[in-house]
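Hello,

Our lab assistant flagged a job as stuck in the queue for most of the afternoon. It eventually completed. Since we weren't sure the result was trustworthy after the delay, we are filing this so someone can double-check. Below is the sequence as submitted and the structure that was eventually returned. Let us know if re-running is recommended.
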Amino acid sequence: PGWITLKVPEATEDDGQPERVRAEVIELGGGLLLAVGDDLRRIGEVEEAVTTAFLWTVGLAALLGIGGGVVLSRAFLARVDAIASTAEAIIEGDLGRRVPVRGTGDDLDRLAGTLNRMLDRIGALMDSLHQVSSDVAHDLRTPLSRLYQRLEDARAHARSVPEYEAAVDAAVREAEGLLDTFAALLRIAQVEGASPRAGFKEVDLSAVAEAVADAYRPDAEEAGHRLSAEVAPGVAIDGDQELLTQAVANLVENALRHTPSGSHIGIHLVRDSAGRACLTVDDDGPGVDSDDLPRLVHRFYRGERSRTTPGNGLGLSLVAAVAELHGAALHLEIGAPGLRATLRFPGAGARCR
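-- returned structure --
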């Protein structure tokens, strides 16, 4: 019993040799044996067919793998070349170029998106730098000219110590105004250049609004204004407390400066069911012209009605910069009467007073 190889003389191969059979012998008992087998030629043909199919499969797989690798590597290198060419264009001064994004969501797409966001940020900072440079060159020329003229007049016409002292005092006031303007410009640049949410912590906006109201109420009463505060308790946001206080203070100062005696100025802070904040400072003064409204946040811009009042035209610019840093939006609206300035923080609905 077991496997055996037999030659069958009665059957021959194509070459005339006896056919060979591979068989398994099984003992049935009683001296009987059962042999079950098949022609070795057919078994060899099957083995040959399997071997041939295997070799073809391996060959095709290798060919496809090599071809696919070449195609993918070329596609990868093409996208790397696109990133490199974009970088070269930016180096040459084309700051508006961006890395192409195919929308596949793969690693290179994510890298391209990150690079584009970085380039957008750099572009915004460069625009801010150019804007500040332009503003300084254009809008500080007048006060510098005034300062120069005062000193020239003193040198040419002052004949006594009191006259010299008066000229020097006037020059000092001009210089102080210039220093204040430069400080405001620097503050705006620092806010615009800061990383969003860097160093943020929870800020009690209700306490900030109440503190600003308490700080400015004596000045408001002395100027004949009435300052009120309607503040919802416990409104908290993530932010920079110093900057938020400065922004609210600038809104109140702006209202105090541009409204006549007897005007009412209100600070309102509300929150929705999720605790998101909406802060408004409004007044019942003369307001602004509708044509001036979109430009009030521009550096050094002053509306027609405010040209005779003190100020450097940077207060609302700082408020807008602080709002953008916190992901909020500054909305200016013409009231009935007066001006309404609203800071809507992320998620705040449209129902702001």
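-- support follow-up --
The delay was a queue issue, not a problem with the job. The result is valid. The chain has three domains: 1-95, 107-193, 201-344. The longest strand covers residues 18-29.
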